[in-house]
Each structure stands twice: as structure tokens, then as C-alpha cells.
DNA sequence: TTCAAAAATACAATCGATTGTATTTTTGGG
DNA sequence: CCCAAAAATACAATCGATTGTATTTTTGAA
């Protein structure tokens, strides 16, 4: 039943050698055009389909790149993936998409599987749980080129494509301040991830610029899921210090908070102005629409892929890690316009 | 640089045969425990990692299943994928996720790549452009088990996991009627896809039940992107027959229409009530919140995977295609409550 | 017509792991 | 202490394609 046509079957059918068939199918100049035609038509007739397992094994390389993201359902990540696919496709590479679901264990497993499948390279954005880099160091020692995008780890010799999160956090916070907020809460994520550390740094920087005292109790750390936003909102309201602004390190948690505030009858933005991060599509339509920081996902995907492919095709081993930093932009909507 | 440790390296280091190493790594009872221990520790020491290309080639099978969806960014599909991953992971299978982006060409390419990589089976939801089944018939002849979910084609011997779209369309339309609508427009998709044909059939069935004349000019066909919804809304408004209800075969187009209506100052649901389909997260937060039909994505993914794995592990060739039909449920929100 | 160069094709090893069969080693009952 | 059975290990073929080298065939200039 299974299609078992191999180059040997074709060779036998035409009484020629398998090596010639292989070369013909790869359009090698060493094979006569007439022979190529015969082989191609016979291959077609027999429903031949190259066995990439065998091919890749022999060539000791694949033209597949692995992509690991925390969740494909996040708009930012699916945009990045689109960018990756486009760039990879143009270069003749396939893409395997995997999601860690923010779990270190899954991330480890995925790295293992990708390496076992001998992918040509890996693009990844680490999970929130990733505080242990063994699997990544392993991949590095192993010689598999990889590159971080958005969420990275500091590993010697590994490049990354990032956005300027300090600036993003600064812009978001400054925007709130310029709209009259004086007591601004902040939802942050795991501090092991520099994106969250940096957004927080931007927040603090903005407070400093405007001489607003930094109150650590207004900064809540969580996994930034919707439920975390809801609970964070509750926590903030319970503080003696009343907040009038909130900068959340992602849109999802911001929305969780919005729902809670709305439920409590708190007016947004009048009583509390809110700014998110990532520009999820949902943020545009929620009421009030959510001011947020837009990240160029598609472009990040394209650039990352281009850099990774360079790395893959680089013969030399001179590792020159570089950080590519892209700009984000604030999108002003109703949740912050007082 | 590249990690080249093979079972032969381990074998040589321990002065034993590679076959023993292989058996040890696979925990075969034919190898002495002490030897296993030595091999395992040496493998660890050398940073050995099984080459799945070689392994799969030899075994002539992989434990990878391919998944093809139109777009990973659609909430419904990412839920299905989560279900698939969970079920596959439990059974020791890996998952390759691919998106056709609604393009037939890409779907064809993806099928080719998956077959070339000898995946154990494929789960797919066809693209809107898919009107030609050659690539799928090819996969069938080839003997690769596959199964449709949500969007299927009628191919002899191929099972599918679907939801009851006629019922869903009926429920949506009846809901509008019971809320007082008499002139209900409908956004439909390509009629080659039975999901859209069926939702339309449900729409018509509901009209018949309530003795409302069916007006074909109120049914617009498109790719159901947001822009199609916006344009569809414009078209519907230009008709002599004024509509007071709209059933869109997906949420995205419904939202496109909502935006247009809101822009035109048309009140929802008072002047026009709207029901979508798929329950995208965005539908819950848009203002007014969108009534929609929820599909059990996660469950669809789990069931599909279970059935596919059965198919894969079935030795016999007796093809007994079956359709599994799941129920959808209407979620009533503000866009339809008059 | 001849023959060296070029073109076309065949041969054979190889990628790394698996697995059926053969051989060696160990075990334990008599 | 011997030997058959069991256990452990070694040998060798194989999966399907690729590729360096060798051989055969063709070409065309002298």
C-alpha cells in the first residue's frame, strides 16, 4: 500500500544505475537531457517521491528550521511566524513551528526533538519559566545555529533580534504621565526575562524623568495571563495608595484588569488610564480601546530568519553575536485619553 | 564543531559493537544491565543524541504527525492545535504545524513536504481555495493516513471530525428570528467548503421553519476576512430590501461589518442584530459583544488525533471512513439582544 | 579513420541506526 | 567438572539517497 517507489525502482525500470537517477532528479549537468526526461517521466509514472529522511541523512543536513514560541495564539508571535515563513520559504527552507506553552519542560523537549531531527537552525523566544539554559547551551555546543527573538537569554555567541523594551516601557509610562497620571501601577512578568526587566526599567526611567517617586509596591509580577490581570487589578485597588494609571507589560493582563475595573464601576480612562503592550487585535476593539505598544512582528520574523540563514551558511566558526534592536511604537487609543 | 557522536563512537570507546549500543539505548532486554549502564554513561559523556533521520529511515516510519490549518492565528485553530498536541504528546508523537494561509498552492507544497518527510499521518483543515484534490488523493494513494477536521472534502475512505454546521447555522438564524429579525443577511464563504454550504443550509432551514421568504440577494459570498465583512455590510445597506439582522459564517467578517455599521451610525442590535460563528476571543470584548456559535476546538483536536492514531496503528487496510459530528453551541451576547 | 578530451553512465562507499542471525560467554543442574 | 540452555554480544545486511571515482560512450579535430 505505502508508496515505496525509490530511485532504485526507477533505475531498475529503466535499466540504469540509481546514481544516475539521483543525479537526474537533482538536475545534475552530468546527466544527458534525454535520460533526464525518461527518468522524470518514469518517476512521475511510478509516483516517486523523494525520501527526505534518506536524503538528509546522507547530506548530513536538512533545510528545515525550527521555531519555538511560547504560544502561537498570541498575535505578536503569529506575526513573527508569518515573517519567518516568508523569509524561509524564499530561501527554500521549511519551518517547523512549536509552542512551549510557557513551560520549561516542553521547551527542553522541543529542543531535543528539533536537534534529533537535525534541523538546520532554530529561532526561539524563550518561555517564562526558562531560568536554566542547559538545553540551550547543549544546542550551542552541538553546533546547531540558533537565534533569539523578542525574549532572549544572555548566551555568549548567540545573536538576538529584539525590540527596545526600555524605550517601550518608557514611552508607555511617559504617555500616562503626560495624560495626568501620578500614581501608576505596573504589571510585570518574570524578571529572568529581560523584556520584562527592561519594560520595568523604562517605567522607572519615565518616573524619574518626571520626578515621580518610584513605589515598588505598585509593581506586580505575574505570568501576565488574563486572570493575573484581574487579580492584579484587585490587589492594586486594595492598596492605600490610590492609582490613577496602569502600565501592563502585555495586553492580555491589561484586559484582565480592564474587565475587573469595569465590573467595579471604575471609569477608564477617567479614574484609571491604562496602557498595554503588544497590540493584540483584541485591544483595538475592546471598550474602551486599549492604548498599547506595537511591535513589528512580521519584520522581526523576517530579520531573524535572514540572520539565522546567514549563520547557517557561514562556513567559518567565528561567532560574532550581535543584537539587532528594533523600535516599537505607541498606539494611542481611548483607554488612556483623559 | 557539530556534534557528531554516533553509536559507533560510543561502541568504539567501549570496545563493543554498535548493535549492542543501539539496543542498550533502546533499553532492549537483550543487553546486560551493567553494559547498559556503561553505555548510557558514555553516551552522556560524549553528548550523544540519537539521529532520528537515520533511525526513522531504518524503521521506515516516523512518530511525527503533520497538521495543516489555514491560519494558526485563528483562535479556533489554535485551540484545535492545543488539543492535537496534548493527545499526540501523550501517545509519544511529535507534531509539525503548518499554515496554508488559505492558499491551495501552499497547501500542496506542505503536503509534499510532509510526505517527503514521511510523517506518520496528517490532520488537515483545507484552505478556502481548495477545489482540486489531487494532492490529497496522492496522499491517499501513497498510503499516508490522514483525517479532516472542521473543513473537509468528500474523499472516499477518509474520515473527518466535524461540527454540525447545519445546526449551527440554524441556531444562529433562529436566534435572530426569535429576536424579531425578519430580513436577515448572511455572509457565506466558498461553497466548495461544506462548512459554508452547511451553515447556509441551516440559515435557509431556519427561514423556512418560520415562513420567512429566502432572498438569495441577501446572501453574500466572500473569503470572510475583515475587509469582506466591511464591504459586505456596505453592499447589504445598498439593497432596496432593508435588513434588520445579519448572520456571518465567521466572527471576523461579522466584526468587519460591525465596524462599518457603527461608523455609519447604525445601532447594533436595535437596527441590525448580528450573530457570528467561531467564538473568537475578540468577540467577547468588542462593543457590543458579539453573539456567536462556539465550536469545541480543543475537543476536536483531541478526537481527531485519537482517530488518526488508530488509523496509523491499524494493520489492516480496511478503510471505514466515518464522520464524527460534534455539537456547537450558541453564545448569546449583546449584538443580538433587542 | 584515429584518438584524446569530454560527456555520460556505472560502481561502490557512505550517512547513522536498526534488526535478524550467528557466535561467544555465562549459568547452573547433574 | 561438563555441557546444554540461556544470556550476552558480535556480525552483517538494510533503509534510500548521495557523491567521489572509475569506466564506458560519444564527440570532433586532426
Label this structure with key terms.
homodimer; 338 residues; alpha/beta; 434 Repressor (Amino-terminal Domain); Rossmann fold; 3 domains; six-stranded parallel β-sheet; 12 strands; elongated; DNA-binding; Lambda_DNA-bd_dom_sf (chains A, B); transcription regulation (chains A, B); DNA binding (chains A, B); HTH_LacI (chains A, B); LacI family DNA-binding transcriptional regulator (chains A, B)
Topology diagram in text:
2 copies of one chain form a homodimer.
Chain A: H1 7-14, H2 18-25, H3 33-46, H4 52-59, E1 64-69, H5 75-90, E2 94-99, H6 104-116, E3 121-124, H7 134-142, E4 146-149, E5 160-163, H8 165-178, E6 184-188, H9 194-209, E7 219-221, H10 226-238, E8 245-248, H11 251-263, E9 273-275, H12 281-285, E10 292-294, H13 297-313, E11 323-326, E12 329-331
Parallel strand pairs in A: 1-2, 1-3, 3-4, 4-5, 5-11, 6-7, 6-8, 8-9
Antiparallel strand pairs in A: 10-12
Helix pairs in contact in A: 1-2, 1-3, 5-13, 8-9, 10-11
Chain A binds a DNA duplex (30 and 30 nucleotides) through residues 6-8, 16-23, 25-26, 29-32, 35, 50-60.
Describe this structure in words.
- Chains A, B: Keywords: DNA-binding, Transcription, Transcription regulation.
- 2 copies of one chain form a homodimer.
- The first copy, chain A, has 338 residues and is of the alpha/beta class.
- The first copy, chain A, folds into 3 domains: 7-50, 434 Repressor (Amino-terminal Domain), CATH 1.10.260.40; 62-162 and 297-324, Rossmann fold (3-Layer(aba) Sandwich), CATH 3.40.50.2300; 165-295 and 331-336, Rossmann fold.
- Chain A has helices at residues 7-14, 18-25, 33-46, 52-59, 75-90, 104-116, 134-142, 165-178, 194-209, 226-238, 251-263, 281-285, 297-313; strands at 64-69, 94-99, 121-124, 146-149, 160-163, 184-188, 219-221, 245-248, 273-275, 292-294, 323-326, 329-331.
- In chain A, the strands form 3 sheets. Chain A has a 6-stranded parallel beta sheet with strand order 2-1-3-4-5-11, with helices on both faces. A 4-stranded parallel beta sheet of chain A has the order 7-6-8-9, sandwiched between helices. A two-stranded antiparallel ribbon of chain A has the order 10-12.
- In chain A, helix 5 (75-90) links the parallel strand 1 and strand 2.
- In chain A, helix 8 (165-178) packs parallel to helix 9 (194-209) and helix 10 (226-238) packs across helix 11.
- The longest helix of chain A has 17 residues, at 297-313.
- The radius of gyration of chain A is 26 Å and the shape is elongated.
- The termini of chain A are far apart.
- The mean pLDDT of chain A is 95.
- At the A-B interface, helix 4, helix 5, strand 2, helix 6 and helix 7 of A face helix 4, helix 5, strand 2, helix 6 and helix 7 of B.
